[in-house]
Design brief:
- The complex is a heterodimer of chains A (336) and B (169).
- With 336 residues, chain A is an alpha/beta fold.
- Chain A contains 10 helices and 15 strands.
- In chain A, strands 1, 2, 3, 4, 5, 6, 7, 9, 10, 11, 12, 14 and 15 form a 13-stranded mixed beta sheet that branches.
- In chain A, helix 6 packs across helix 7.
- Chain B has 2 domains: 39 residues; 124 residues, no CATH class.
- Chain B is elongated and about 90 Å long.
- In chain B, helix 2 crosses helix 3, helix 3 runs parallel beside helix 6 and helix 6 packs antiparallel against helix 7.
- Chain B is an all-alpha fold and 169 residues long.
- Classes of the chains: A alpha/beta (336), B mainly alpha (169).
- At the A-B interface, helix 7 of A face helix 1, helix 4, helix 5 and helix 6 of B.
């Protein structure tokens, strides 16, 4: 079996998604997808002393939850892969103290979940591992203090901003087709694209070209068409970024019609005042593990594309006047 | 011989990277213009209206406190100091209760510029970084937002003092 087509696309034969678990915050609970999540926090601190500890607990909860749903024990898992938005990806790493499995820490900002699925698929399809857990997430309060202002500071928010989603999503990937919900058949590792956006509030506009580059590369490599898919889900472009991607791709000869969805823009209701919608590593992780997997379970979806997008900046670089380099990874997910 | 080769090599790499960054630069301006065009702008009229109303209300409230104090026999100068203290204390409480950030979200400069905004800028990081302890958290981070205001305030008052001294204005 050919493991690679075209320039950048990987082909997987035996990478199955066994089970997924999504845990979300209180704001997400009251949003549009509130009913889909497996568990929602009552308060942002999750009974812990600090928001960082709460985020760490969220990851543990998601891992235990997905193992429970799949009737597996932690010792059945060979490797866990994942990351979060905090400096030195501490939340996931600290959560891993509770488990015996080996751990690969990944970081591609908000595209970390897609990255972990991509690497995880390579591991299981390559025969190096039998079962891996892919995990990613973010927390509004920890991200806000790292990237922006203290929570209680009264500042005017720009209309292009997004709201960092609170939540974590975990998936189990295996090389066996038993009890699998769907399988990952192809993947593209993206390139870093920077078109010079310096406004750190306008992440959607910064990331849209990266998403476009990866999707176009995928279509070019695989000769696939938009009509082959039930949906193309981008990670956290927001409403504005989604629109830019739509126009950008149309200029380059690809019309998404009504098939382009954005996980971040799907999360909140208009009245929740998140402006362009959600952002953060949690967006793609919780939407994939709840909404998308449910659709596969109900046999409503046959084939989708998941495009995790990430803005690779830090507060330091943006204060130094650097623009925002972005990346997007793409996965083709099919029903079994 | 090998040294020459290496030098040539690095020059080549340098040239290549120059060409690359130039290419990106050209693409950048077009896309940035486009993004600027499609991005929604904040409504200045609405923002200014709310800043005017809320800022005005805060200042009017301050004046009410001063008048009340003066009526009760407090000296004019002392009364305005007291009023500032009361406003700062109230804003600190409002920050702690999680009200002030909601006000700031639509009042903007109307709630940032009065003395209550300064109070908010001190108390918000103090609450936020309490989890890192009294010294490295609260102590070190309390001035992250208000610090620049203090530094620039001191600088400018020094410049004004020099002018005052030299010109006698």
């Amino acid at each position: 079996m050919q493991k690679r087509v075209g320039k950048q696309t990987f082909v997987f034969e035996n990478a199955f998604v066994r089970q997924g678990f999504a845990i979300a915050g209180p704001k997400e609970k009251h949003g549009l997808l509130g009913d889909c999540f497996d568990f929602c926090l009552q308060d942002d601190k999750f009974g812990e002393k600090s928001f960082e500890k709460a985020e760490c607990k969220m990851f543990k909860f998601a891992i235990d939850g997905v193992l429970n749903k799949a009737n597996l024990q932690p010792q059945n898992i060979d490797t866990m892969l994942g990351g979060d938005l905090l400096n030195q990806i501490v939340s996931v790493s600290f959560a891993m103290r509770a488990y015996d499995s080996s751990f690969l820490g990944l970081y591609n900002a908000c595209g970390t979940f897609a990255e972990s699925l991509l690497v995880g698929s390579c591991l299981v399809d390559g025969g190096y591992k039998n079962k891996v857990v892919c995990i990613s997430g973010s927390h509004f309060s920890t991200a806000e203090r790292q990237y922006r202002y203290p929570l209680e500071l009264g500042v005017l928010r720009s209309p292009v901003t997004q709201w960092t989603a609170t939540g974590a999503g975990a998936s189990i990937l295996t090389n066996e087709s038993d009890n699998a919900i769907c399988k990952i058949t192809k993947g593209v590792a993206g390139r870093v694209i920077d078109l010079g956006i310096k406004d750190v509030n306008n992440m959607g506009a910064a990331m849209a070209p990266a998403a476009c580059d990866t999707i176009l590369q995928f279509f070019e490599d695989t000769k696939a068409k938009v009509d082959d898919y039930d949906g193309i889900f981008t990670g956290d472009l927001g409403k504005l970024g989604r629109q830019i991607l739509f126009d950008f791709a149309k200029d380059r000869g690809i019309d998404f019609k009504d098939k382009l969805f954005d996980c971040g823009a799907m999360l909140y209701k208009q009245k929740q005042q998140t402006f362009q919608g959600g952002s953060g590593a949690a967006c793609s992780a919780i939407v994939f593990n709840s909404y998308i997997l449910n659709k596969f379970k109900q046999k409503k979806y046959k084939k989708i594309l998941l495009v995790g997008t990430g803005a690779l900046l830090s507060p330091l670089t943006s204060f130094q006047g650097e623009s925002v380099p972005c990346i997007a990874h793409c996965l083709e997910v099919c029903s079994c | 011989m090998s040294q020459n080769f290496e030098q040539k090599d690095t020059k080549l790499i340098e040239e290549q990277s120059k060409i690359r960054s130039f290419k990106n630069q050209k693409k950048k301006t077009l896309y940035m213009d486009y993004v600027f065009e499609v991005s929604p702008k904040s409504s200045h009229v609405k923002n200014m209206f709310w800043a005017y109303v809320i800022g005005g209300l805060i200042c009017a409230f301050g004046q009410v406190i001063i008048d009340l104090l003066v009526q009760n026999g407090v000296e004019d100068k002392v009364a305005s100091v007291f009023a500032s203290c009361i406003l700062v204390a109230l804003a600190a409480c409002a920050t702690g209760l999680g009200v002030y950030d909601k006000l700031g979200r639509f009042a903007g400069a109307g709630s940032t510029v009065p003395i209550t905004g300064f109070s908010n800028a001190m108390v918000a990081p103090a609450i936020e970084f309490r989890s890192e302890g009294m010294i490295y958290g609260l102590g070190a981070k309390m001035f992250t937002v208000a610090g620049p205001v203090v530094v620039n305030g001191v600088m400018i008052s020094f410049v004004i003092a020099v002018f005052h001294l030299v010109l006698g204005v």
